[in-house]
Amino acid sequence: MVMLIHGKCHCGNIAFEIEWEGDPPEIPARACDCSFCVKHGGVWTSNPQSRLAVTIGDAVLVSKYTFGSHTSTFHVCSRCGAVPLVTSEIADHLYAVLNVNVLENVEQSWLRRVAVSFEGENVGSRLERRKRNWIGDVRIEWGA
To answer: Hey, what's the torsion of the CAs at 9, 15, 20, 38, to 10 degrees?
Structure first.
């Protein structure tokens, strides 16, 4: 069974819907130990079989931040400060992960929290891991 999960930043400027297999779904929740994720409370999830539709209300209020290997982009809402998603463009294809802290219609018991570290991972293996594990069907609709 497919469940439609909704999420958004605190003010709603960055919103999304994701089609997730399972009823109820088991949702991996990876708490990355990099300094950005620790400071922003980033706990990420993805399902490579799912479809993600992101709607940006006001594009001017979305700040894009990259660091380290510059292979991913953190989408930060400048109005409320939330970081609901990260994208990575690999060979002209867009992949994404979502912050479980902005999911709205998800029971906490569905989340399978684990700590992860990608320290020391080279760029090639990092991109291959993302192609395997991140959401590969991503549409982003940019507003004004």
So the answer is: -30
Strand partners, 84: none
pLDDT by residue for the chain (144 residues), tens digit each? 889 999 999 999 999 999 998 777 889 999 999 899 999 999 999 999 999 999 999 999 999 999 888 999 999 999 999 999 999 999 999 999 999 999 999 999 999 999 999 888 899 999 999 999 999 999 999 986
Structure tokens at 128: 């291959």
As beta bridge partners, residue 75 has 64, 85
Model confidence, pTM: 0.93
Length of the chain (residues): 144
